[in-house]
Structures are given as C-alpha cells and as structure tokens.
Design goal:
Layout lengths: L1 E2 L8 E11 L6 E6 L9 E2 L22 E8 L7 E2 L5
Length: 89
C-alpha cells in the first residue's frame, strides 16, 4: 500500500521493487529479483494525489523473503515522497 505526503502535493507516480530470495537453508540469499519491466516482471503505478491509498499485489508469485527494496521511478513535482507498507499474508 502506498500514499503520498498529506497536504503537500508530493507523491510517487511509478515505482518497482526488488526482493531477495532465500536459499533452501532459509538463511543465505540467492540473489535479488526485480519486479521491473525488462526483467519480465512488474512496474507499479503509484499515487495520483497526496492523500489516497493505492494497493498492489504480487499476484500468484509465492515470495519468501525478509528483504525488500523499493525504487522510485517517477514522482510529482520536485519531491519524491512515499509512505509504503508491505503486508504479508
């Protein structure tokens, strides 16, 4: 879930994430994997204003990780600002 900075007109309009896959031992990382165009994965559309909440799902990807990176691609005006929550089910 993402949202911008309230009452500021500052928000991110496009982003992608990477996640680290764990090895069979559940400890050692096997590498970082993108959810970005060109990697065959997904770029996420962000917010269109500074107050609404946008939710995205990874779909049927079964991701087991403890580490997630977020990369902002585009933002409104001069200030990239994003509140971001990751929900695991």
């Amino acid at each position: 879930m993402t949202s911008g900075r309230a009452n500021s007109n500052q928000y991110v309009t496009k982003y992608y994430i990477e996640y680290a896959k764990e090895g069979d031992d559940g400890i050692n990382l096997t590498g970082w994997f993108e959810t970005r165009p060109g990697s065959g994965q997904k770029e996420f559309s962000g917010n269109q204003n500074d107050h609404s909440v946008v939710t995205h799902y990874l779909g049927d990807q079964n991701v087991r990780t403890r580490k997630v990176r977020l990369y902002m691609e585009n933002w409104w005006e001069n200030y990239p600002c994003m509140r971001w929550d990751v929900v695991f089910e």
